[in-house]
Structure formats: C-alpha cells, structure tokens
Amino acid sequence: MRKLVLLSSALMLFNSFSSVAETIHFPEEFVPLQVGDRLIEQSFFSRIDDVELAPGTYQVKMKYTDLFEQGYDDHQVVESEPFWVEVTVESGKDYDLVFNRASNAVAAEVFAESPQVSLKAKGSELAVPLSIIGYRAASAPVQAVATAPVVASSKPATATPVTLPAKVPGGQAGLKNTPSAAAMLEFWWQQASPEERRAFLQKVSN
C-alpha cells in the first residue's frame, strides 16, 4: 500500500512538472545554444531542436546555419554569429521558431548579417517577431524567472534534407536549393570535433 501511495505521488509530481513546461521547437537552420546562463550541449550524434521552458521571459542564444548546393557535388555553408533574442513563454502554449528561408546562398548571407526570427504558438496563424538583443543585455537579470529547469530534448542526428520552416505572415519560405543527404552528412562532419569523428567512424565500421 505504501509503495502504491509513493508511486501515485511520484506520478502526480511528474504530471505537475510537465504541465508547467512548454516547448519551443527550433527548425533545422537554427541551433539553440543557451538559455540565460544555461548552456545547451549539441553534438555530432544528437541534435537538440526542442527546448522546454516554464512560463516566463527568457533570453535565448542561438545561431543560424544553412546549406546550399552549388552545382552537382558542391555546396556552401552560410552561418551567422551567435545572437540573443528575448522570448516570452505563456502557460499552456507550445511554440515554433519560424523565419523566411533564403532561396539562395547570396540571400542567406544577407540574412545571416541580421537574422530575423519570430515565435509562433502552435495552432496560431500569428507569428510574433523576436527582438534581437546584445550580449550585455542578455547578461542582465530577467524579470520573469523560470519556475522549472530548462529541458533540452535531443534526437539522433540524421543525414536528411533541410526541413523548410513554417510560413511567417507576409512572406514565404524558400523552396529551392534543398541540400542532398550526402551534402548534409558532409556538413555535420565538418561541424564535428575530432573525438566525434573517430567515434562515428568506429560506429559505422562495426
């Protein structure tokens, strides 16, 4: 009987935590790096694209990175410098980070100089533009403090084409130059550390 009571209490505690944690989904072209002073660990074998946050206001650090094919077997990687945005999460809402994907590498380089992203609640047609803030602003205390830990959901990295993001009102995501699986694999290989490359080679050779 005591075990049953303890199990029920644990389930209630888990459900209460889940009820206050909302999810922000990041498209493949954006890498979440940090929430406040909490780092988000990315690796060659697992990509984190879902971050759970309690309702509140947060400062989130991320990076834009995109891949464009240049001919038959050549491609170009376009990246931005890491930047911070201020995000407000409301109770009971999950979100998608959305943007207008560039149709070619030239346009992507322009976008990387000044990324523009929005936050769209799932089921909503309205995407709210996010304000980009500087590092000093990101270091300042946040008024709304998280009531639960930040949880980053990861999944194994796969060599798949870039997934186009949702539309942002007033624009359309680019539909051209979707990279091949081989190009994506080479892209992630370049991002991997020497240790991750050795582990990957050992894994595929078994």
Automatic annotation (TrEMBL):
What does the UniProt keyword field contain? Signal
Organism listed in the record: Pseudoalteromonas gelatinilytica
Signal peptide annotation: 1-21
Which taxonomic lineage does the organism of this UniProt entry have? Answer: Bacteria, Pseudomonadati, Pseudomonadota, Gammaproteobacteria, Alteromonadales
Q: Which family does it belong to?
A: Belongs to the UPF0319 family.
InterPro entries assigned to the protein according to its UniProt record, in alphabetical order: UPF0319
Name under which the protein is recorded: DUF2057 domain-containing protein
